Amino acid sequence: MSSIRSRRAVAAVAGGLGFALVLTACSSGDSGGGSDASGDTTADCADFEVYGDLSGKEVDVYTGIVTPEDTPYMDSYKPFEECTGAKIVYTGDKAFETQILVRAKAGNPPDIAIVPQPGLLQQLVATGAAVEAPADVAANVDEFWGEDWKAYGSVDGTFYAAPSGASVKSLVWYSPTEFADSGYEVPTTLDDLMALTEQIQSDGKVPWCAGIGSGEATGWPITDWMEDFMLRLSGPEVYDQWVNHEIPFNSPESEAALDGVGDYLKNPDFVNGGLGDVTSIATTTFQDGGLPILEGTCSLHRQASFYASNFPEGTTVAEDGDVFAFYLPGETEEDHPVLGGGEFNLAFSDAPEVQAFQTYLSSDLWANTKATISSEATGGGWISANTGLDVANLTNPIDQLAAGILQDPNTVFRFDGSDMMPAAVGSNAFWKQATNWITGQSTKETVDNIEAAWPAS
Amino acid sequence: MTGKFLTMVLAVLIFVAVVGVILFIASRAERRSGKGVALMFLLPTAVMLGIGLLYPAGRTILQSFYDAAGTSFIGLGNYETIFTSSDQLVVLRNTALWVLVTPFVATAIGLLYAILVDGARGEAAAKALIFLPMSISFVAASIIWKFIYAYRPDQPGVEQIGLLNQLLVWLGGTPQQWLVSAPLNTLFLIVVMIWIQAGFAMTILSASIKAIPEDVIEAARLDGVNAFGMFRFVTLPSIRPSVVVVLTTIAIGTLKVFDVVRTMTGGQFDTSVVANEFYSQSFRSDNQGLGAALAVLLFILVIPIVVYNVRQMRASEAR
């Protein structure tokens, strides 16, 4: 479930990475401007004239994004507030995923909810409380996002919610220094990745490290691994069928994908560098999973762009720094599937001020404002798949890498599958069975059990 | 915001008004029968019980006969799932393990400790020591024990940070991952609950040991009873009602155990119990029906223990 991930994502990058980068890269010459995030948000009000005068109106935003990464959000709303006179009331709640459903069902929804999973979006629309996106938002999404992103914000062909933030999950963390010293090269195909893994192993090291512990959500990093391999081994069409349950979860393709992951994670020669045996993957928290890279006891760790913040303060995250990430390659060099996540702004009210605010959030203006503010306030940690986003507004190398991957025309983007599956699978059986799988359960039994948990309807 | 605040103020005002009206009517009716007045005072409580307890309980029972979305009636389908699906059977097995082990072990430890420290020097300090865990929240206790069970690999340069594995290493063993393999991991979780509850058992039992009349003990001594005989024929029979109350109280608490499981394993590695599964089905899996059925099952399981507990309490108070 990306709820946890994306929250950490933003928080993470905001915190640690922010520190690292601000300290190492950005501090020179930028005196005074950095801390004052609202400095250049006194934007040109001409852009906001279309929304009219909204003085005295209020829009409440409900989200799972809490301190400290909520500050850039609130700051990015300020130009809208200053120019239109509307007031935006922001409420961040760690229990957002369960509370938003309760609120929607109880007839007490917020004006706008920032929903991190298409699956939850569908549940919310099913309560009957959500309202369709206005035409202006649809126009913005048509202009700045791909068809696929629009589909993630739609339910049964009706468009409800525009995407805002995004994250890239198909990344492998490594140490550029180690790669340079040992003569390793960043792999460009899956075969290369396996060859590199074997090479590292033959050098007497344990190549991979991993951790999937996350409390009751333990297991989610394996779902991401599996989705990445599903995309790579069977292609995006089969991936879509799999996510939509048009092919069963225990289909041969699905088994092949999990076995593909097992070739790395269940091979005792390849894991778990610095952390123990294969089973230790289950008990290591995902936050700790990649840290042995810094110790030199492992070389590779597959995790999303937000993982940057988990490295301790003072770690340089850059292409020539202590750690960096490369794109988890496809079968061939031309093959460029990317697994990612994102969040959507779903409205429960069609009042003019709510529609105006929704439209602002779906514009390239907001994407750039948010990116600039995030870069200044927290050293980055926020990207969007909005093609109107100017990559120059991103100051941190991982954000630039991730945004570059998202905007690459060769990229075939697919949303995190477990976030789109029914909750009984995506946030329960899939995690649980993946955990059992890493502690010894067979691939066949694992996919069979997940298939059995799929709701009947 | 202001809207909600006004609603709250309004609700409080209505409450005050209702109570005022009741008091007024009661004062007028005072001269007549006491029964009518009693009923009048009972009314608000009954209404609140109805709204806060009976209605939700009824809704939950009703919901347990419906499907995941709560829209179509499926009869006993959810209960069938609980007793047939392999996942749910593991949950039932774990719950049984918890309820069978925790109360007896915690009570036994509490009792033994109470007897050992009874009358000893520094009794108060010794009691405080074992009572201390009681004041720690379940979540905090679980976090403490997570550290005790912490695992670090058996590799050069890696040091254990968990107490249990460090002890094991000192004794020449290899570190283990205590919380991974079922059903042993459930026992390691149960230890946390025992750690918390033993202090409670000790306090109650110690008090009732002290309440045993001195002349009974004196008489037994004169008869030449040894230490074990004293325990078997004097102490235990005298404190039997307290032991039962302690056992049942811990059993009820154990049936509802949620925090320990959720904090330590999140119900992973086959450690889920009914209370935890109820939460994860209702809120994580979005299976309202199954969640409700589990809640009802928990309720049904608690009833006999509560009834027994109440009867024992009455019996011990009557003495």
Automatic annotation (TrEMBL), chain A:
Signal peptide per UniProt: 1-25
Keywords: Signal, Transport
Classification via Gene3D superfamilies: Periplasmic binding protein-like II
Cross-referenced InterPro entries: Bact_solute-bd_prot1
Family: Belongs to the bacterial solute-binding protein 1 family.
Protein name per the record: Carbohydrate ABC transporter substrate-binding protein
Organism field: Pengzhenrongella sicca
